[in-house]
Amino acid sequence: GAVVSQHPSWVICKSGTSVKIECRSLDFQATTMFWYRQFPKQSLMLMATSNEGSKATYEQGVEKDKFLINHASLTLSTLTVTSAHPEDSSFYICSWSPPEADTQYFGPGTRLTVL
Amino acid sequence: AQSVTQLGSHVSVSEGALVLLRCNYSSSVPPYLFWYVQYPNQGLQLLLKYTSAATLVKGINGFEAEFKKSETSFHLTKPSAHMSDAAEYFCAASGAGSYQLTFGKGTKLSVIP
Predict the structure, then answer these.
(1) What is the pLDDT of residues B15-43, one digit of tens each?
(2) Best residue in B91, B99, B109 for a mutation probing chain A (most A CBs within 10 Å)
(3) DSSP 3-state helix, strand, coil percentages of chain B (rounded to 5)?
(4) How far apart are CA A52 and CA A87, in angstroms?
(5) Interface test with A, best of B44, B45, B89, B94 (most A CBs within 10 A)
(6) Range with the poorest average pLDDT among A10-24, A79-93, B25-39, B62-76
(7) Once rounded to an integer, what is the mean pLDDT over residues A31-50?
């Protein structure tokens, strides 16, 4: 149980383009989910917390207009990196926090490379 | 605010040797504590968690961790390392009832044949 998928698993795009990453919970529903970013050889950094039907709460230093989060259902959330630049290249990981669960369930991650 | 410190960014052990990965937390209230493992280009997999029940927690793949309030520690151990244990390990903490996790910087475990 508690399976989370992300699509795509990797993507390469040109600078200035936008990229959408999907995160789905496959066998459970949850109101709250999270988006993280992980640079090489570093830890996960929380980007935003999202509750279904509400605007996401972004961490300090994360541009909400650049990283658009759409959390339209209890099983699907998307992160769109708008006007991507090489410095946005990173590993993006989502997680869900089901009700009455005391942990988060993580997706396999999406490797974004911006040329 | 909580913080999580992992001592040693890289640990090497011989196959069959004891694995010890250190984690200390900083919190006025004992938090929930977690160990996750990450294999290359993959997401995080939960190894074990402490949520104020038994202080010695057993997880998957033969790992266990002991919560020591007096030392504010939650070190991860495994009696005998296997080659497949080579990965990045993250210690994390959250407040009781809070969904948000604070991660340590991670420790890369290498297993030498």
Answers:
(1) 999 999 999 998 766 788 999 999 887 88
(2) B99
(3) 5, 55, 40
(4) 29
(5) B44
(6) B25-39
(7) 90
